Amino acid sequence: MTFKLAASPHTHQKRSTQQVMRWVYLCMIPGIILHHYFFGAGVWLQMLLALIVGLSAEAIAVKLRGRSIRTVWRDHTTVVTALLLAVSIPSLAPWWVISIGMIFAIVVVKQVYGGVGQNLFNPAMAGYVVLLISFPVQMSSWPLATELAQQRVDLSTAASLIFSGYTPAGYSLEQLRMGVDGLTMATPLDALRNGLTAQFTTPEIFASQAIFGAVGGIGWGWLNLAWLAGGLILVQQRIISWHIPVGVLLGLAVPAAIFQLFNPDTSIPVSIHLLSGATMLGAFFIATDPVSAATSNRGRLWFGLLIGVLVFIIRSFGGYPDGMAFAVLLANMCVPIIDKYTQPIAYGHGGKS
Amino acid sequence: MNEYKELTWQGLWENNPALVQLLGLCPLLAVTSTVTNALGLGLATLLVLVGSNVTVSLVRDYVPKEIRIPIFVMVIATFVTMIQLLLKAYLFSLDQALGIFIPLIVTNCAIIGRAEAYASKNPWRQSAFDGVMMGLGFTLVLVLLGAIREVLGNGTLFSGAELLLGDWAQSLSLTLFAVEHPLLVAILPPGAFIVMGFIIAAKNKIDAVRQARAVKPEKTVTRARVTAQ
């Protein structure tokens, strides 16, 4: 008779990495559907491209490293990276934009460091930052929300735009982005940033731009609510702990509220901060990456707060309208020090001696 | 002669200042956005390195050990000033392009490193040769890095070569492909770090392959089967 000896820990995680990742992309569905509703069908093509390029790049990198492709593909982390990058970039960006982003994210940020579990930085956001600083024009050309656009972007139009740069009818992306008055419209955060730099007050900007028709801007508000809904399911399912999202939202909302209280005319309102740009997607889906985030619960709270404050600083005083990607990468760099100072005390240690 | 062969090997490959010692990375990463800038800075560094190595080697017996580093720095700074004045006189536009990184050659650890590690212990002929080889190794890496970054970020090679080599070099400027949307990150500082990482990785890979090849596979004894299955 043999006794089976099992090494500790004796309690088991209920879910495998693959299951966790599957939950993450299931919870992205509401956001993706609203993305499709507001910004057209391009997002599906971007996701498809990101998946094909990401999985192929990973296969090549893993083969060069002499590992088994199947075990690496099976954990589905690349799928989540691909989907996150695809929903982060403008949905009608040319095909090579997302391809370069995915190759960088998977090969340089993930596999060079040793694959899943080893990467210092969030792959999707590192890929996003490379794209943002390399192709500022393509990366800020967000299509208009459907209510404002003159024509709907269906799947064939989107395919034609992504692969050739023009619609079948011969319009360029620039022309599609014009509103009824023939002016190219910006995203809410962009509009606020440009307006505030040009010495307009916040209410003036709100009145002059059609994009501010709803809370958080047309399209963007609902989109953020959809990400929030998906994120809440993740928290409820214990896929992610509440510490990071709460930290991010607090870190962003508290300074924003203070500034709005004292300077209502020259600051971005809290509602726009919370419900526009990448706030909810970042707080619930991006910052919570289990590999590159802090590990203890107290550390996660600090990590989230740091991201939130950085996003606020970049949006208010920085050179870019939104700063989620930069904030996440900067916070990733701080993770070792956060982990060092928030290490939980093991049972039986510490306390008063 | 064998000594010189060893110095060549050390400087260009085995102990390359940029790839192995990782010295002088600041100018290496900052000015290598085009081949022309890289070549200009590489040659300036090479000249300073040779000059300082020879001088340090000649005065090595008269320098008190305790204050040798300040003296080496003085020697290096003198040569850098000479190079900078020469650049300003004859290649002014290149001097403008390289800017602060010419004076900063003084702080290039590769130069003081060679002065301390080699020139202060060896006769001047070997020191001069060491300076040439280390300088060449540094220049080659600079040019390689500059070429990769220029092609990725601009689609050109040798653009602006006339700044360094005179008007005839305008014909050297190659446009490999016209880029509508340059990969700006390759030109920016992060691109330098990333490309540098890949170059170092490639060098290590080549070394690993050479090492594996150098170890002769042991002779396997093959026996003929004499019994039936």
From TrEMBL, chain A:
EC nos: 7.-.-.-
Transmembrane spans: 20-38, 44-64, 125-145, 210-235, 242-262, 268-287, 299-318
Names of the cofactor(s): FMN
Pfam family, one: NQR2_RnfD_RnfE
InterPro entries associated with the record: NqrB/RnfD, RnfD_bac
A GO term from the CC aspect: plasma membrane
GO biological process: electron transport chain; transmembrane transport
Quaternary structure and interacting proteins, as annotated: The complex is composed of six subunits: RnfA, RnfB, RnfC, RnfD, RnfE and RnfG.
Functional description taken from the UniProt entry: Part of a membrane-bound complex that couples electron transfer with translocation of ions across the membrane.
PANTHER family in the cross-refs: ELECTRON TRANSPORT COMPLEX PROTEIN RNFD, ION-TRANSLOCATING OXIDOREDUCTASE COMPLEX SUBUNIT D
Protein name according to UniProt: Ion-translocating oxidoreductase complex subunit D
Gene, per the UniProt record: rnfD
Automatic annotation (TrEMBL), chain B:
One GO term (biological process): electron transport chain
Primary residence: membrane
Transmembrane segments: 38-59, 71-91, 97-115, 127-148, 183-202
Keyword Membrane: yes
GO CC, alphabetical: endomembrane system; plasma membrane
Record carries keyword Manganese: no
Keyword field: Cell inner membrane, Cell membrane, Electron transport, Membrane, Translocase, Transmembrane, Transmembrane helix, Transport
EC number assigned by the record: 7.-.-.-
InterPro entries: NqrDE/RnfAE (IPR003667), RnfE (IPR010968)
Membrane protein topology class: Multi-pass membrane protein
Protein localization: Cell inner membrane; Endomembrane system
Function: Part of a membrane-bound complex that couples electron transfer with translocation of ions across the membrane.
Family: Belongs to the NqrDE/RnfAE family.
HAMAP family in UniProt: RsxE_RnfE
Subunit relationships: The complex is composed of six subunits: RnfA, RnfB, RnfC, RnfD, RnfE and RnfG.
Name assigned to this protein: Ion-translocating oxidoreductase complex subunit E
Native organism: Pseudidiomarina taiwanensis
GN (gene name): rnfE
